[in-house]
Amino acid sequence: MSSSDHPIPLESFQTFRDLLKYLRRHARLTQREVAIAVGYSVALFGLGQIAGRQADYSAAHSYLEESLELCRKLDDPWSIASVLYLLGEVSRLQNDTTQAIKQYSESLTLNQTVGDRAMIGFTLHNMGKIAQLHGGLDRAAHLFGAAKSLREDSALTTSWSLTDHAQCEEDILTLRKTLDNETFEKAWREGQAMNRDEAAAYGLQRRY
Fold it and tell me: Does residue 16 register a pLDDT over 80?
C-alpha cells in the first residue's frame, strides 16, 4: 500500500516505537535501516527549515528534496506531507507559485487523510496567499476564513513552519484592507462555516 491509499491515522499509534514497527513492516526495512532513514530525514528536514528561515532557498530546497526522497521510501504519509508543505513554502517564497500549489496540494491531500487539522489550516492559508497574489481576492478570503478555524482548533505545534499565527493575522488584515468590507465579510463567513472536508475540497478545486 502506498501513502496515497488509506494511511492509518496518527492517533492509532500509542508510542513512537509502534510507529517505527509499522514503518519497518510497511517499507520492508530492518529496524536499523528504518532508524537511520528516519533520523537522516529528520535532520535534513531541520536543515531545510533553518536554510528557509535564513532565506537560503536553494539550500533549503536541496535538503528538503533529499528528506522527501527518504520519507517516500519509508512510505510515511505524515512526514511526506510535512516536507511537501515546507517545500511549498520555499517555492512560494521563490515566487514559483505553480510549483508551490502542486506541493501544497499533495501535502493537503495527505494531511486530510491523516487528519492533521493544524497543517490543513496552514496549507489553506498559504494557498490563499497565492490566490491573493494572482488577484483571487474573494478566494483568498474564503481560504483565510476556513484556515483560521483549522489553525486554531488544534493543540499541535507548528513551530517548524515558515509561517506562524502572527504572520497569518497580518495577511488577513492586509486582505481586509484591500477588499471592500461587505465582500470580505461574506467570503470570510462562508470560509469559516466550512468543515474540514469542505475546506480541503475548496482548496483543491482549482489552482488560484
Answer: no
Instruction: Output the nine-digit C-alpha cell for 142.
Output: 474564503
- Judged on CB neighbours under 10 Å (0-12, 13-18, 19+), 21 is middle
Q: What is the mean pLDDT of the chain?
A: 83
Q: Provide the residue range defining the domain that includes 190.
A: 116-208
Q: Model confidence over 120-150: pLDDT tens digits?
A: 999 999 999 999 999 999 999 999 999 998 8
Question: What's the chain's length in residues?
Answer: 208
Judgement on whether residues 152 and 193 belong to the same structural domain of the protein: yes
146 half-sphere exposure, CB direction, 13 A CA radius: 28
Work out the number of other CB atoms within 10 angstroms of the CB of residue 83: 27
User: What are 100-113's pLDDT values in tens digits?
Assistant: 999 999 999 999 98
C-alpha torsion angle, residues 121, 126, 128, 133 (rounded to 10):
170
The model carries a pTM of: 0.79
Number of structural domains the chain divides into? 2
